[in-house]
Specification:
The complex is a heterodimer of chains A (about 550) and B (about 90). Chain A is α/β, with parallel strands linked by helices. Chain A folds into three domains: about 170 residues, Thiamin diphosphate (ThDP)-binding fold, Pyr/PP domains (Rossmann fold, 3-Layer(aba) Sandwich); about 160 residues, TPP-binding domain (Rossmann fold, 3-Layer(aba) Sandwich); about 170 residues, Rossmann fold (3-Layer(aba) Sandwich). In chain A, about 35% of the residues lie in helices and about 15% in strands. In chain A, helix 1 runs parallel beside helix 6. Chain A is globular, with a radius of gyration of 24 Å. The relative contact order of chain A is 0.11. Chain B is built from three helices and four strands; from the N terminus they run βαββαβα. By secondary structure, chain B is an alpha+beta fold. The chains are: A alpha/beta (about 550), B alpha+beta (about 90). The structure holds thiamine diphosphate and magnesium ion. Magnesium ion binds next to loops of chain A.
Chain lengths: ~550, ~90
């Protein structure tokens, strides 16, 4: 058989079961687009390459499988970088295929030439500059293997235009790239870990995104139940254990619940699984779980001993490590410890101001959760609205929660929600966004309208960069600067202009009913909720302080 | 002065490998004091020797290098390596 490089790329993507590709064409990737036009793969034309990257992320986060997006050389490639860096920090398997100027023109400052390879080195798990058409037969399957194996992550493949047009004669298609085998089970370490768990008086499980990614939530839950170990979740770990589970302590860290952070203070053993001790989770590291021994389970050996040195570091796939550990630990009831934890929860209950008011920040999150039901997927942007959603949304299952955790990228929410809706068209996708964040990728409202995706954008509008303003309020003597907007944007008109229905809960006589009606329609819509800029998210651990030093969120303030 | 050590790597031989390795050190502000590189196995792979300060970040550095797709093997020579003793003669 004989195919062009572009045809080979598309055919190999089909063989990887890719059904949807988001992207934008340009001079340097037109051969790929020409080949794509003849393929059953559905193309989603975005209005910005960052939007395409976040759509791919939304698909990958919901399915757990690598998703692909396309961009042209130069500005197309530079526009993808934020979405790729975001995927790197949250370990999301996406593959970005960029066009590049022809090989002979590389290094000549040709039109729309940029060093995509060099730019993407520090923000990818791996990257390629393809130098001949035959390499594609290895590079494409390898990219899928690398993106999805071990700790997942983004891969960039930069393909010069003449490599796309070159013809190649070959005999057989390569096997699609799949998930490789994890490292071997560390049996002695796990036996040691089990002994330490059995001896512990006050153990806590600390579950993160790795538990969600590896599909080991059920094992983590079984482990918690067998040995009566309460579990705290990182921002990325939300959904690893249902919030209504008696052993679930909820989210820890900067905006975690008081009782959760206080329980961490008291534990004598921390069993950290699929977490990387991010500073927003640990607070001042030296004072994080000060009395605890640490068992750290992760597939990425470089995470072990990186921030905190572990007494028992265990490199390996969590599915294997947790399964082995589950067999080894002895059943225990630990009633004194569970009693102490329950006491902390009683003394420091979670306070949700405005919980019953669907026109308040927390209230609309809770009302939307109730109306959307257990099947909904929840996506956020970055800011106060994100932290509030993380604090109070009743997450019940892994992959229900999509948020930009590591990079904290404003603009993530809406395009990621589009991706989620494309990957799971049967589900409702709630996207909680802020007036600052939504502006960062507002152009892709057009894409949402065009594809009639079932995305309900709940816009918490405080006409401010709320989370920044909150820091100025608390730590910069209330010197608000560059965090309030001087003019109000009419988001209802904007939505309408893009072809989305929109409602304003603020001027609705029955906001609960209006919200219910909006969520019941199919297709996208924007739900505008005016909120105050003067309510900080509490509790809050000041940056650099220990998690025990929380401000606000107390019963009597 | 910090104690120095030599890291010996076996890597795939293509134009991007050096930037992957050097980038890991550069973005952590970890200076590479000496570097040598030669193709082996008829050019399909290369051997790289890095002379670095053995500070408390070294273990993390080695784990990061080991994660790179194009790095096939990592060895550590705390007693130094003849490559650098001989190279030193050129700058003496
Ligand atoms: C791309 C980007 N730029 C800047 C920031 C810093 N930042 C963090 S939260 C925030 C404010 C977000 O405002 P908004 O989306 O309105 O959310 P709110 O906090 O008001 O709910 C800013 C500017 C960021 N996280 N991402
Ligand atoms: Mg805002």
């Amino acid at each position: 058989m004989k195919f062009s490089g572009a045809e080979i790329i598309i055919k190999l993507l089909e063989r990887q079961d890719i059904e949807i590709i988001a992207g934008i064409p340009g001079g340097a990737n037109l051969p790929m687009y020409d080949a794509l036009s003849a393929s059953p793969i559905r193309h989603i034309l975005t209005r910005h390459e960052q939007g395409a990257g976040f759509i791919a992320q939304g698909m990958a986060r919901v399915t757990g499988r690598p998703a692909v997006f396309f961009a042209t050389s130069g500005p197309g490639a530079t526009n993808t970088l934020t979405a790729i860096a975001d995927a790197k920090l949250d370990s999301i398997p996406i593959i970005c295929i960029t066009g590049q100027v022809p090989l002979a023109m590389i290094g000549t400052d040709a039109f729309q030439e940029v060093d995509t390879y060099g730019l993407s080195v520090p923000i990818t798990k791996h990257n390629y500059l393809v130098r001949s058409v035959d390499e594609l037969l290895c590079v494409i399957p390898d990219a899928f293997r690398i993106a999805s194996s071990g700790r997942p992550g983004p891969v960039v493949i930069d393909v010069p235009k003449d490599v796309q047009t070159a013809m190649l004669e070959f005999d057989a298609w390569p096997e699609p790239g799949g998930c490789g085998f994890g490292p071997e089970l560390m049996a002695p370490e796990l036996a040691h870990a089990a002994r330490i768990i059995d001896e512990a008086q006050r153990p806590i499980l600390y579950l993160g995104g790795g538990v969600v990614q590896s599909g080991s939530s059920a094992l983590a839950r079984a482990m918690a139940e067998k040995a009566s170990i309460p579990a705290a979740l990182s921002l990325m770990g939300l959904g690893a254990l249902p919030v209504d589970h008696p052993l679930c302590l909820g989210m820890l860290g900067m905006h975690g619940a008081r009782h959760t952070n206080l329980a961490m203070e008291r534990c004598d053993l921390l069993i950290a699984a699929g977490v990387r001790f991010d500073d927003r989770a640990t607070g001042k590291v030296a004072e994080f779980c000060p009395d605890a021994k640490i068992i750290h389970l992760d597939i990425d050996a470089s995470e072990l001993d990186k921030i905190k040195s572990a007494h028992v570091p265990v490199a390996g796939d969590l599915v294997d490590s947790l399964a082995a550990l589950l067999e080894l630990v002895r059943p225990a009831d630990r009633s004194p410890w569970l009693g102490e934890v329950a006491g902390l929860r009683c003394e420091h209950p979670v306070i949700i101001p405005g919980a019953d008011d669907p026109c308040s920040s927390y209230g609309v999150i809770l009302k939307a959760a109730e109306l959307a039901g257990e099947e909904a997927i929840v996506c956020t942007d970055v800011g106060q609205h994100q932290m509030r959603t993380a604090q109070v949304y009743p997450f019940l299952r892994p992959r229900q929660w999509l948020t930009s955790g590591g990079l904290g990228t404003m603009g993530f929410g809406m395009p990621a929600a589009i991706g989620a809706a494309l990957a799971a068209p049967e589900r409702t996708v709630l996207c909680f966004s802020g007036d600052g964040s939504i502006m960062m990728n507002i152009q892709d409202l057009a894409t949402a309208a065009e594809h009639h995706v079932n995305v309900k954008i709940i816009l918490l509008n405080n006409n401010a960069l709320g989370l920044v303003r909150q820091q100025q309020d608390l730590f910069y003597g209330k010197r608000y600067f560059a965090s309030d907007y001087a003019r109000r944007v009419d988001f209802l008109k904007i939505a309408e202009g893009f072809g989305l229905p929109a409602i304003d809960l603020g001027c609705s006589a029955d906001p609960g009913a209006a919200l219910a009606e909006a969520l019941a329609q199919s297709g996208p819509c924007l739900i505008h909720v005016p909120v105050s800029a003067d309510d900080p998210v509490y509790p809050m651990v000041p940056p650099g302080a220990a998690n025990s030093q929380m401000i606000g969120g107390k019963v009597h303030v | 002065m910090c104690k120095q050590t030599v890291i010996e790597l076996t890597v795939n031989n293509h134009p991007g490998v050096m930037s992957h390795i050097c980038g890991l050190f550069a973005r952590r502000a970890y200076n590479v004091e000496g570097i040598a590189c030669m193709p082996v196995n008829g050019g399909s792979t290369s051997r790289i020797w890095l002379l670095v300060d053995a500070d408390e970040r070294l273990n993390q550095m080695i784990k990061q290098v080991d994660k790179l797709e194009d790095v096939l093997m990592v060895e550590r020579h705390d007693g130094g390596h003849a490559v650098f003793t001989r190279m030193a003669e050129f700058v003496a």
